[in-house]
Design goal:
five-stranded antiparallel β-sheet; 32% helix; Nuclear Transport Factor 2, Chain: A; single chain; 21% strand; alpha+beta; 517 residues
Length: 517
Amino acid sequence: MKNIKMNRIIILLSFVLSIQLVNPTAQAQTPANFSPARYQDAERNNRIATTFPIAENMIKKYAEEHHFPGYAFGIVVDGQLVFKSSGGYANLEQKIPASSSSMFRIASMSKSFTAVAILQLRDQGKLHLDDPVEMYIPAMKGQGLTKDAPVITIRHLMSHSAGFPEDNPWGDRQLADTENELLKLIKEGISFSNAAGLEYEYSNLGFTMLGYIIHKVSGLTYDAYIKKNILAPIGMNETTYEFANVPEKTLANGYRYINNNWRKETLLHDGIYGAMGGMITSIDMFSKYVALHEMAWPERNDAETFPIKRSSLREMHQASKFISLMPNYKYPSGRVLAATDSYTYGLTWMHDALGRNSVGHSGGLPGFGSNWRFMPQYGIGVILFANVTYAPTSGINNAVLDTIVQLAKLKPRVISISPILQKRKIQLVSMLPNFTSSLPIFAENFFEDYPIETLKKEAAAILKEAGEIISVGELVVENQMRGYCIIQCQEKKIKLAFTLTPENPGLIQEYQFYIIP
């Protein structure tokens, strides 16, 4: 009886195979038959919505505890601002409430716009990331910590690895400086803390130089370029770098909390250092930028409709320069989850012990603190603006994201099964345990690494121990060329895993077949 049922399964798989593979050497995988990763949860958005009151209470309580005069908060899901809340005052003197349309200075959150501009110019062939900075700022020639330090490149500036010293307190006061003042500083010589390329060290000066390079390459000042080529195309039309351009009724004043009271901070005008931290925007508008980054995922064959290539945005979401390993990283809730963080291009990247990636950036200036963070594979992001000096916003945003993912029981997008991977699975299962080299599905290395008689013997022993095959599970895809499935037997479960070669079409080069303990 066991052999009869086993034969029925093999016959069925062979029948399916014959439908899908009229010719065993069928056409290889092409972009036309690629399917992007997708969510497999119809109730996902409804469950996310049930967490909004909890997120709102978390933010409200946190804002009160940390003396935010006012704040605005938003949640962006799949490219849409689905929830927003606010509290306190954007203007304490006139008692103007903060709202999602209040215009906050977002400080270093501005850096990623500068990075997008550089990548746009790179994509247009107008510069290269490995160009020496001295090509655009001649006074940088020969500058470095040591004589044997490498030449500083645009990529070094983008990833905070040019060797400049951390300069937050000083940089915060330079927003209004002119390009001539920047060049004068450089000509007088830069002090270095490291040789270029060796260490991550946060540098506002580095991103200011990027702003100058944008001007040199495009002919437009950094802010004019960003407004024309990034902000306007995505509808962030009222976003600006100059506070004098913002109506008083919508401008959020900045404050410092001293001696149990708030002191108004002086806003600085727009200058070349605005490239590192001068942007002024609202939750309503900034959500469009978060949407731009979210909708760069997943990779797909759709026509490009963004002002920058989707691949360039995804490039910004990859680790570029390692920052630290955090084995005892703790969320504000007290939940401990090991994580590592790195800098990308104008953004920070974190990967936690659950395999989740998140990307974003904080901002801090006298009078302001802000943060945005999103999870590319989950399609969800949060934004928080506050108008008190260096408002601590990153920790609470991480906590809110973590809470939403847990309570809504969110799962990441599932990678689609490539046709060639599915075909090879059917072919492989159909010949178990009697391997044959007559079907050309194995790479040239396969039977050298897995002698055929040994394969047959081991597979037969495993099937004998596991019992009659009841069902063969769906492929679990690790990528387009690697995956596994679980075979449910009468007594035990078997894992069948395999990897395909880079040939066209891909052939089976590696194989694992074992009883799950």
